[in-house]
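Record type: monomer structure entry
Structure origin: computed from sequence
Chain ID: A
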Amino acid sequence: MTDRERFNAQMRYKSTDRCFNMEFGYWDDNFLLWDIFKDNGITNNSEADIFFSFDRIEAIGGKNFIHPMFEKRVIETRGNVQIIINEEGVLAEVPLEGAGDSVPHYIKPYIKTPDDWKKVKEERFDIRHPDRIIDIEALKRKLPSCEERDFPLGVDCGSMIGKIRDMLTFEGIAYAIYDYPSMLEDMVETVCSLVEYSLDQLLPCFKFDFASGWEDICFKNGPIVTLEFFRNVVVPRYKRINKKLKSHNIDIWYTDCDGDVRPLLPYFLEGGINCLFPFEVNSCTHPGHLLDQYEGQLRVMGGVDKMRLGEGKAAIKAYLESLEKYVARGGFIPFCDHRCPPNVKTEDYLYYLDLKQKMFG
């Protein structure tokens, strides 16, 4: 089977010659600390995918969010951190290069009020911006023809609320739901229209195997938006996008949402999102629990607990054994449930890859 045939069969609960083999990548620190990367000149995730001979998977899309971006500027350096204005206009604290990976600490958003949003919308969310016209012919030259392509190709469906959360910050979106609900819904509608504009250009020109998205709106205690807001504002936009996808025979749609997604999962499924990626275990649950609960409806990509990878070979083996029946059933592609952290020993990671190949093909 080709990578494309294997992916499509596995995601649709059909038999395959072996499991689709992929990983989500590594912290930047790994490329500086792991000898296997240093000794072989591997400096990024794309090079690592080739080095480990993972199956190929790609996605393409248009400019369906803020454009042009804000200019990134360093405001101040304090010890091993910098205070910056990032590309989305947010004042943030980030580690200096080489000081380790961490989630940025967002200090102050650019958008606080409807007047702020009106200005940014006019300047940076104009659907008529010429850069939002996709160079279809250039993409066709870059990609093999549908008949020749042997890897799965996805279409990017952007982010209805996750990237808005980035712009407003955690605290900002929590307040905006109550203080400025009309502004927030207009932000969601604006982004949805941009995604639809991209899809209308791409869908007639390529045969896609899946759709992808990004909605990082949960943490270990659940969603950071209310279920009422998500159901009434976000889900209807998912349905609009899903209608376009279904009209082009795309029935697998994953979204990247960390944290405890369980309260949102029924609404994801209602809106058309039927796959979780890369499915964090510690802040949610074992992937098998949800695959059993939503058998035949839900798919999972990821779900290998990174904490177990750091605990040595016995823990790795026990965890992979707990996944075996779900891989065999289908609808599940196992890999580390986020970027693999540097505390995982190289020899243990190689053991994990070898054992995964031995158990799942």
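Annotation 1: The mean pLDDT is 96.
Annotation 2: DSSP finds 15 helices and 13 strands in the chain.
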